[in-house]
Amino acid sequence: MLDMPQKSTQTEAVPLMRTSGLKVHFPIRKGVMKRTVGHVRAVDGIDLEIREGETLSVVGESGCGKSTLGQALLRNVEPTDGVIHFRNRDNDIVDLTALEIKQLRNYRTDIRMIFQDPFASLNPRRRVIDIIGESIRNAGETSEARVREKVTRLLRRVGLRPEYLMRYPYAFSGGERQRIGIARALAVDPRLVVADECISALDVSIQAQTLNLLQDLQEEFRLTYVFISHDMSVVEYISDRVAVMYAGRVVELAETEPLFERPRHPYTAALLASVPRPDPKSARSSNRHWLAGEVADPANRPTGCAFHPRCPFATDLCRTEDPAPRAVADHQVACHHAHELSLEGVRPNA
Ligand SMILES: Nc1ncnc2c1ncn2[C@@H]1O[C@H](COP(=O)(O)OP(=O)(O)O)[C@@H](O)[C@H]1O
Ligand code: SF4
Ligand SMILES: [Mg+2]
């Protein structure tokens, strides 16, 4: 159905997307003159590689900058600084941040988004055929019969009945609406899908079904996912690699299993303390540190390591010097003391 390019061994080593020094700073304006008095540094220098075919999760507490990062990858919000290199269908590398809006339109079908609240993101006055069909038409399809045929196939593929074509969004359950949102994202044969908290609003029983659907679709259509979530359990289930964000930066990046079993950043370890494990043998020791205090304010970033006011291991060095990311046992970690800490993770889920 979706005509995806074949994976080439030559290009596998080159990531699908790579951000370098990506920043999104929102100005804070005050007074009648709307003078800029500061900046919310929502995304504050992110170097991230997204490999073709993987699910890279971005995790962190609310306010860490996950959604802003996701939106910046599509340039729905304009980066303040940095570059976003994207490998296009001809295997040429383009810097999305350097494109004019007109040129950027060529990439609107390559990179798609799935949102948290499907009800808010689906126009209530439009039927399913038009909600999904619109992007197919926008991508140049002029035959209504072919649009209808494609939407019907997509609906079936996401587990909805074709006769739902003429219905309006209110006639569906939350889980069904999210399936429509997924069908809409896939309608134009994307290569990269950014899913922002896309199952957070669903009932737990529906969450698992939706995750399974996303995984099946990934395999079938060779999709690459950036999966944004605040929920470590969901992230553990779906990800190949995990990027942990704090105060607009990636503080730890590793493959899922090592990150969960042996976190190297104190913030990752604190997030893992919330992961439930039914097995009493895997009960966490009492000296585990839970997250205390407020998440760092991106408008007023703490000095040195932004996590230091909440970190039980903080030293004078942490309070004054910003730790640069470096490799510690196959993890990328931005922590002065990562190499000397022994942090508790969680065992793999049976
Ligand atoms: N358009 C905006 N203008 C000003 N501040 C914003 C805007 N969007 C997000 N922020 C701020 O940027 C920070 C990161 O927000 P967000 O990316 O939504 O984080 P997350 O998705 O991790 O919860 C927050 O402090 C938020 O209030
Ligand atoms: S750099 Fe210091 S304050 Fe920051 S996470 Fe590491 S130990 Fe904690
Ligand atoms: Mg968010």
Characterize the structure shown.
This protein has 350 residues and is an alpha/beta fold. It has a domain at 12-28 and 38-110 and 190-279 and 287-350: P-loop containing nucleotide triphosphate hydrolases (Rossmann fold). Helices cover 29% and strands 23% of the residues. It is built from twelve helices and twelve strands. The strands form two sheets. Strands 6-7-8-3-9-10-12-11 form an eight-stranded mixed sheet, sandwiched between helices. The chain has a four-stranded antiparallel sheet with strand order 2-1-4-5. Strand 4 (81-87) and strand 5 form a beta hairpin. The radius of gyration is 21 Å and the shape is globular. Residues 1-11 have low confidence and may be disordered. Bound molecules: adenosine-5'-diphosphate, iron/sulfur cluster (SF4) and magnesium ion. The site of adenosine-5'-diphosphate has 12 residues, from strand 2 and helix 2.
Distance between the termini: 35 Å
The helical percent reads 25-40%
- At the first level of CATH, the class of one domain is Alpha Beta
Bound molecules: adenosine-5'-diphosphate, iron/sulfur cluster, magnesium ion
**Number of contiguous helices:** 12
> Which strands sit side by side, in order, in the main sheet?
6-7-8-3-9-10-12-11
What structural class do helix, strand and pairing data support? Answer: alpha/beta
Gyration radius (Cα, Å) is 21 Å
Tell me the CATH architecture of one domain.
Answer: 3-Layer(aba) Sandwich
Bin the strand percentage: 15-25%
Judging from the principal axes of the Cα atoms, what is the shape?
Answer: globular
Output the CATH homologous superfamily of one domain: P-loop containing nucleotide triphosphate hydrolases
Number of strands: 12
